[in-house]
Amino acid sequence: MKPAQPHLLHVFPSFVPGGMEMRTVNLIGGLGDELRHSILSLDGRTTAAARLPDGAPVTILPSFPKAGSLKTTVRLRGLLRDLAPDLVLTYNWAGVDALLAARSLGLHRVIHHEDGFDADEAQSFKRRRVIARRLLLPGAHRLIVPSARLREIATGLWRLPAARVTLIPNGIRLDAFPPADGHPELRRRLGIPVDALVVGAVGGLRPVKNYLRFLEACAAAGPGLQVLLVGDGDDRAALEARAAAPDLAGRVHLAGYQADPAPFYRAMDVFALTSDSEQMPVCLLEAMAARLPAVSTDVGDVRSVLPREQAPYLVPLDGPATAAALGQRIAELVRGPEAPAIRERLGRLNRQRVEESFTFHGMCAAYREAYRSALSA
């Protein structure tokens, strides 16, 4: 008789296409029928479910009515009793309610994931949340983080023993990202001149990503440069207004959310990441896999993810001066007779770095081991 599949319950703040959500989608595909999954989105948004592999053993659960933390915890207790999952997986701050519900029921087969912070904790941490994590995280079997910076926060600020914190770097499927080659067909479709130089960015249009800074940096890099931004979100209207200003008018292309961003990386010459806070951004790995050079704010693990040759193109956060500094680095990669050779060299080194350290196979194996460890606890 075939053994029963262990049942994993995932509790997400929101199940929309983003870094940790798409990582989970890909892991579900990579793990195949070893496990079955239930996914609860606390805010009711489940658009990432459309990216799940056909036939995957996944159930999308109905969300709860919007309520305060205490009511949500009570409802989560009832869900845990009814489902009796073999392993509970919670994600980020909003997942702490599920962690509290599991702990109140004496459940210890729980893995909590922390992937980063929103704009409200980009520069400093809320004391109430720090205290809550100190109290509740020790009740989980393990905390998984994707970056060394988050591991430092967990063992330092949240006071977890190092043995309870597992660092699993993000990984991507390399064969999904062919080399950037200008993609003339896509450029024509987007209205980008085939022979133009294009600086691009990919991600959700929300404040912590600071794409207004991205547009300011592209404006500071000088005229003629084309700008490609792939993603959607609440900041779109503000970005459209900035893109209409005379110094950028006609040069900014807002492509919206794309289920498959790989063709859009192909259409870029330089990738830019301008966030106020990151840990280990998947979009950076994807751009590196596409052999793109990168310009970035020096946040999270970005410096250690990139090869050392990319260090001159990292910019510290320094208020309004950050955009101008990013613009200068972009200009260095797109102007002058040596710029094409520099872009080619950095792109080649970036691809090599991902091949060595950030593959999907390696990430999937590490998560499989973490899940097995918790299931056997």
Annotate the secondary structure layout.
Layout: E1 7-12, H1 19-31, E2 36-41, E3 58-60, H2 69-83, E4 87-91, H3 96-104, E5 110-113, H4 127-136, E6 142-145, H5 148-156, E7 165-167, H6 184-190, E8 198-202, H7 211-220, E9 226-230, H8 236-243, E10 252-256, H9 262-266, E11 270-273, H10 282-289, E12 294-297, H11 302-305, E13 314-315, H12 321-334, H13 339-357, H14 360-375
Helix pairs in contact: 2-3, 7-12, 10-13
Task: Give your account of this protein's structure.
- The protein has 377 residues and is α/β, with parallel strands linked by helices.
- The chain folds into 2 domains: 7-171 and 359-375, Rossmann fold (3-Layer(aba) Sandwich), CATH 3.40.50.2000; 174-357, Rossmann fold (3-Layer(aba) Sandwich), CATH 3.40.50.
- It is 39% helix and 15% strand.
- The protein contains 14 helices and 13 strands.
- The chain has a 7-stranded parallel beta sheet with strand order 3-2-1-4-5-6-7, sandwiched between helices.
- Helix 11 links the parallel strand 12 (294-297) and strand 13 (314-315).
- The longest helix has 19 residues, at 339-357.
- It starts with 6 loop residues before the first strand and ends with a helix.
- The model has no long low-confidence stretch (mean pLDDT 95).
Give the structure's gist in a few sentences:
This protein has 377 residues and is of the alpha/beta class. The protein has helices at residues 19-31, 69-83, 96-104, 127-136, 148-156, 184-190, 211-220, 236-243, 262-266, 282-289, 302-305, 321-334, 339-357, 360-375, and strands at residues 7-12, 36-41, 58-60, 87-91, 110-113, 142-145, 165-167, 198-202, 226-230, 252-256, 270-273, 294-297, 314-315.
